[in-house]
Design a protein that fits this description.
By secondary structure, the protein is α+β, with helices and mostly antiparallel strands. The protein is built from one helix and three strands, in the order βαββ. A three-stranded mixed beta sheet has the order 1-2-3. Helix 1 links the parallel strand 1 and strand 2. The chain starts with a strand and ends in a 7-residue tail after the last strand.
Length: about 60
Amino acid sequence: MTTKAKILFVAHNSVLSPSFGGVETYINTLTKYLKNEYVIYWYVPYHGDDGVGVQLIGPDKQSI
């Protein structure tokens, strides 16, 4: 059994946030092409009702 290598994308925003642009779209496209061979994580800022911080988003696009 082989384990997939992991990739961590670090960005200033993500396509999961309302105001995203080119970098976020590029990372999202890369994720689509690489997800079969790698486990993809995103480390991005978080702006929510409970404050501001950073979040780690897992392969299922859920915050970990």
